[in-house]
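Dear colleagues,

As part of the handover before I leave the project, I'm documenting each prediction I ran so the next person doesn't have to rerun anything. This entry is a single chain, and its sequence is reproduced below.
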Amino acid sequence: MAITKEKKADFNEKLVDFKNYLEELKKEANIYKLQSKKNKDMEPYFNIALATNSIKSINTCLMINELSTAILEINNNNYLETARKEIYNCISYIEKTVTNNIDGSLSENKEQLSKIERITPTQRLNLIKGLREAIKKTNVAFGPNSKWKWSWPDIHYRLAGCCKNLFDFIAHEKEQDLDNPYYYTRREHFNLIIELSNSAAQDFRSKFEMSTQDSTDLKHSVEMLEMNRKIFQITGETEDLEKTKTLLESFQQKIADLESDDKKKKKKQ
């Protein structure tokens, strides 16, 4: 269907304010980066500010795409691609702040969290929730058959890692008091870690079954489940721990079988 001049003009007119806002966000990000270089002690805070800036950029690009579909009846792929790039930027800023370590102990992020102690538990949770929602909307906007379909499991894997590394497990265990102002916030954040990890594990399983048949994808599933196993083991949630152990054994057996088959094939060649 051809796009009329009137529709195009209408879209371009409405686009102006959005483009101006994106430019403002770029200028703001450049200021954060410049200040970050000048003051290394404040760098973790500027990284969090840059992550928040990226989420604002993603949401603005998504609004432009919605405008395009409403007026022109087509996706605006340029802005969707920009949104996708900003997702990676946002994750990278968080990883720079609290590392991207999935395998470490639950208290290993103590030093990193001490450098952003002025960022409250509520702000940390809202950062992850905002990023999660932006990722979800971007995925939906691209559609189920986009060329990026199988890149989302990796994004969800890194999101789960960010969620875990932004969480203070020590404070969570010490402050099990309903009167604590952050009790419910920490409980929500804790549950979100488990949810995101399980979801990422399932994503990689689907990628394995529907696309790659590569044991590496199942290994990523194992890494997510192993992260949850550590959490359940320390927090004493025995029912969830047993379920997770059963899933882990199933995945590990599948990986062992695949690697055994690969060895047999190589010997025959």
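Residues 5-38 form the longest helix (34 residues). The two ends are 54 Å apart (CA to CA).

All the best with the project,
I.
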